[in-house]
Write a structure and sequence with these properties.
With 263 residues, this protein is mainly alpha-helical. The protein contains 10 helices and no strands. The longest helix is centred in the middle third of the chain and has 28 residues. Helices cover 78% and strands 0% of the residues. The protein is globular. It starts with a helix and ends in a 6-residue tail after the last helix.
Length: 263
């Protein structure tokens, strides 16, 4: 290695070039589903079980989202607990926002879903036009990261509305709705491995689909047997799912921190 290369290498801090968001792996999607399912059960826990109400719950959870988002934007490197805290806060906020649109504003699941689809597409289009790309494999710029989180909040809110529409209004029920959404996720996986479809487009398709999957899974876990659910309750389901998510965060953090042995 030349002196110039050595000096150049020494001048680069890996923390200044590493992405501030999680690497997309198989475990990432498991954690995403856990987080979004907690978003459904946690949002219902606050708004219904604790009887806070949809409007007040939305304000509380949006406030938590804003706090975690600001902390995430201010940090200079990837923090797994902070990152997943923002994902979780977008999920819980998305649940109450969707319920507020449907039940308080009485827009209905179909109308609410259509509005949220338009918002998500609008965010992605403005992001693409403004920044030139909507890729998520390496995010450092604060403006790009802001678009990233706006798109995630919109997709998680959309997922709740879409999941509720399929489970309640469409007549499919929780089981068939989950099967339909799981089929969509399966097609996305096939597209990833066997087609030349843009990986960025497939990421956002999967991100949107895993939210209603989590939403319907949350309903399946918490709703009564009479409504086709497992009747586990919002408290128990939320605690179990949070424990699984925290365990996965710790496991992935340990694996990434483990030094690589040279051969």
């Amino acid at each position: 290695m030349s002196d110039n290369q050595s000096r150049a290498g020494a001048a680069i801090d890996p923390a200044d070039t590493a992405s501030k968001v999680a690497t997309v792996t198989f475990v990432f999607w498991i954690m995403k589903i856990c987080a979004t399912t907690v978003g459904e059960t946690g949002g219902d826990l606050l708004s219904m079980t604790m009887n806070v109400g949809y409007a007040a719950s939305s304000l509380i959870l949006i406030g938590i989202f804003v706090v975690t988002l600001i902390a995430q934007l201010m940090t200079k490197r990837f923090n797994p607990f902070l990152y997943w805290a923002v994902i979780l806060s977008t999920s819980t906020a998305g649940t109450t926002i969707s319920d507020y649109m449907d039940r308080t504003l009485q827009l209905g699941y179909a109308t609410g879903s259509a509005i949220l689809v338009s918002i998500l597409i609008g965010v992605l289009v403005v992001w693409r036009v403004t920044m030139g790309s909507i890729a998520v494999d390496h995010i450092r710029d604060r403006r790009v990261e802001t678009f990233y989180w706006m798109a995630i909040l919109a997709s998680n809110t959309l997922g709740t509305a879409l999941g509720d529409y399929l489970a309640d209004s469409s007549g499919l029920g929780y089981g068939l709705s989950n099967l339909l959404i799981a089929s969509g996720i399966g097609l996305t996986v096939i597209g990833y491995y066997f087609t030349p479809i843009s990986r960025t487009a497939l990421f956002w398709a999967a991100f949107v689909l895993t939210r209603p999957f989590g939403a319907t899974m949350g309903d399946l876990l918490t709703k009564s047997h009479e409504k086709g659910g497992f009747d586990l309750g919002t408290i128990g389901s939320t605690i179990v799912l949070l424990a699984v998510l925290i365990a996965l965060i710790l496991w992935t953090t340990f694996r990434q921190a483990k030094p690589v042995r040279s051969t």
